[in-house]
Design brief:
17 helices; binds zinc ion; 31 strands; alpha/beta; Rossmann fold; 24% strand
Length: 669
């Protein structure tokens, strides 16, 4: 595979016909209608592809965009062949563009968002991404790092300045820049509080200078920016120009020392979770609709994500993270030669993300405020502009997860078991760079219609391997037990099956085991029950140093499996779901590789319908082939599961993990 990239730029200056827009950024004191333009605001986009996966990067010169607006962009780009998780819309956070969030309206309590402008903006972002994709050429990647530390202030931690300037350049075969994604940790807030003219602030100037000197399109993203500003914050346009020059010099110096990034495939990871809204002011703004956002049970949904090519990792967060949030997560990756770039305000704007250890509460003027003890007078407002302390903790754990690569051992009884119950999850895990081994316990000699035994076994094996290949399995193993006879294993034979699974666990050392749920109380397939029993027993027996000592003589050691995802056939034990919306197509495709099994599956369904005197056209009419049937069946079933969790498609599991140990092991940094 080869990486390709295209880039484009488009103006997002509101056309006159759109009506009033308000300047967003500084604490609202009075109506600040936009009166003119100091310098233009733009969207800049790049599309990066490895031939299989493609991502859209869009840098938008506005204060921030909430999740609902980004979802509109994703809807439109999904129709252009982008998976939703592969769309990254990040805002530069200029404090001199039209209000796109709502906080800076004509008066307190009234949203400052001009909806017409938002729709215009969505159109422009989508068009710019499409244009970028159309100009793709093969590229090489180059990472550079510099610093602008001496020209920044950190309002909370003296000496705690993170002045990182990062850049990744995508160059065509002649060595010309197609796109440069660059980051800086200083908030673009050099315009003054009384300014009413549009401006992209320093990032707009610097991107323009990079484009002039290097060619291509320069996309800016905020780095770990919480509490960090230019030394000339709020001092106006003259100081902005001189600060921009310093940043440009820092970028140029960094680019001079660039390092080639090797890698020919794109990996995309996304973690979505719920963050409680602990900040009462935010809750009021959500409820009043000033910030347009769904708040259910006092929490909001948010995602962190990462894309990776070779040893370059670009992490995207939905708010403004403080320096310190990343250190422990990133250090080992960088120590091993990796490059990690941080892009804030991506796909949402949830406020400051403050590490738990830096979060402070106290009393000022008789009322409880979140404050910083480093300042004598305490309160400086960052805590008040965050969701609360839980946001930092949750973001930190998600960051760890983004950099954790797992070994997965998936064990099914029959050829189609893993595909049907966990195919989307397996595909998602493998697509996110985890190593998956799939195991089939039985031989599927009988899962066919009118096919002789030996041929049925051969076909099902071949079709199973084709399906698991689509799901991204690195290895497929067949244990060869006779299907539909597992319940007849005598005591010794069962112990042997269990020993084989223990051996597999000790050999493969999985972090995650995926298999049947032993609590599936509506289970009528005894092969499934026996596999559930053997696998779940083996998971804990593999860590006993007294069991199967013959393994140790072979050089194997004990192994404890961190997590089990068990197909939850009984909804009362479903405690975990995996959003497989972006992978449902691959799941259907994999299911359709099980041609022999699917034929029998729908044949059985047709017989059941007929036995009930029902005529089901979908099953009887040959014009519907098994692809149509599988597509409908899978989407109906897993769409229902998705609806239970607020996503389009989900697979549900009974997850067994560290349980209460997690509460005892909290990292408060
Ligand atoms: Zn089965």
């Amino acid at each position: 595979m080869v990486i390709s990239c295209g880039a484009a730029r488009a103006s997002i200056v509101p056309p006159g016909s759109i009506g009033k827009t308000f300047v967003a950024g500084y604490e609202a004191t009075e109506a600040s209608e936009i009166t003119g333009m100091h310098d233009p605001i733009n969207v800049r986009a790049a599309v990066v592809s490895d031939g299989t996966n493609k991502i859209a990067l869009a840098s938008v010169e506005v204060i921030g965009l909430l999740r609902d607006v980004v979802e509109m962009v994703k809807d439109r780009l999904e129709a252009r062949g982008f998976k939703r998780r592969n769309v990254f819309v990040f805002c530069t956070h200029t404090h001199a563009a039209p209000d796109t969030m709502g906080l800076w309206g004509p008066r307190l309590g009234v949203s400052g968002v001009n909806r017409q402008y938002l729709y215009f903006l969505v159109d422009r972002i989508v068009a710019c991404v499409v244009e970028a994709g159309a100009s793709s050429v093969p590229v090489t990647l180059h990472h550079s790092r510099g610093s602008i530390k001496d020209n920044l202030v950190n309002f909370r931690r003296e000496g705690g300045i993170d002045g990182t300037v990062d850049a990744v350049t995508f160059k065509d075969e002649e060595g010309r820049a197609v796109a440069t994604l660059w980051t800086c940790t200083a908030q673009p807030e050099i315009t003054t509080r009384v300014n009413t003219e549009m401006s992209a602030d320093y990032p707009g100037i610097v991107s323009g200078l990079i484009e002039q000197s290097r060619g291509g399109i320069a996309l800016f993203a905020l780095g770990a920016c919480g509490g960090q500003s230019p030394e000339c914050a709020e001092q106006g346009f003259d100081r902005m120009a001189s600060f921009a020059k310093k940043v440009f010099v820092a970028v140029e110096n960094a680019l001079a020392g660039e390092a080639r990034v090797d890698g020919d495939s794109l990996e995309i990871r996304e973690i979505t979770g719920r963050i409680p809204v602990q900040n009462g002011n935010f809750l009021i703004m959500f409820k009043l609709g000033i910030f347009k956002r769904d708040v259910a049970e006092g929490a909001i949904t948010a995602s962190v994500s990462k894309w990776r090519i070779g040893n370059l990792h670009v992490v995207h967060l939905p708010g403004e993270p403080f320096p310190g949030l990343f250190e422990r997560v990133v250090e080992p990756v960088e120590a091993a030669g990796g490059h990690v770039m941080v892009a804030s305000l991506t796909n949402d704007a949830i406020g400051y993300i403050i590490p738990v250890g830096q979060f402070r509460l106290g009393r000022i003027d008789g009322s409880t405020k979140w404050l910083d003890p480093a300042k004598k007078e305490g309160f400086i407002g960052h805590e008040d502009e965050s969701l609360g302390p839980e946001a930092g903790r949750i973001a930190k754990y998600a960051l760890y997860e983004l950099f954790t690569y797992k070994k997965v051992l998936a064990i099914g009884a029959h050829a189609d078991d893993l595909t049907i119950w966990a195919g989307g999850t397996i595909k998602r895990l493998s697509a996110e760079g985890n190593e998956v081994t799939c195991v089939r316990v039985c031989d599927d000699w009988e899962d066919c219609v009118g096919v002789p035994r030996a041929e049925a076994m051969a076909r099902n094996k071949e079709e199973c391997e084709a399906a698991y290949k689509i799901l991204g399995a690195a290895d497929v193993l067949h244990l060869g037990y006779t299907s539909d006879y597992l319940a007849g294993l005598d005591g010794g034979e069962y112990i042997k099956l269990r020993e084989r699974v223990v051996r597999l666990i000790r050999q493969r050392k999985p972090d995650v085991v995926i298999s049947f749920d032993i609590n599936g109380n509506d289970e009528e397939n005894m092969d499934h029950v026996v596999v559930a029993r053997a696998v779940n027993e083996a998971c804990w027996q593999a860590s006993f140093d007294a069991l199967y000592p013959e393994h140790f003589a072979e050089g194997l050691g004990i192994h404890a499996t961190a997590e089990r995802y068990l197909f939850a056939r009984n909804p009362s034990v479903t405690n975990f779901h995996v959003d497989v919306s972006d992978f449902i197509g691959e799941k259907v495709e994999a299911a359709c590789k099980h041609v022999t099994v699917m034929k029998n599956f729908f044949h059985q369904y047709a017989l059941l319908a007929r036995a009930n005197k029902l005529h089901v056209e979908l099953l009887e009419d040959p014009k519907y082939d098994d692809w149509v049937r599988a597509n409908l069946f899978i989407k109906l079933l897993y769409g229902e599961a998705g609806a239970r969790h607020g996503v389009r498609y989900a697979e549900e599991f009974n997850r067994i993990d560290a349980g209460l140990l997690k509460g005892l092991a909290r990292d408060e940094s």
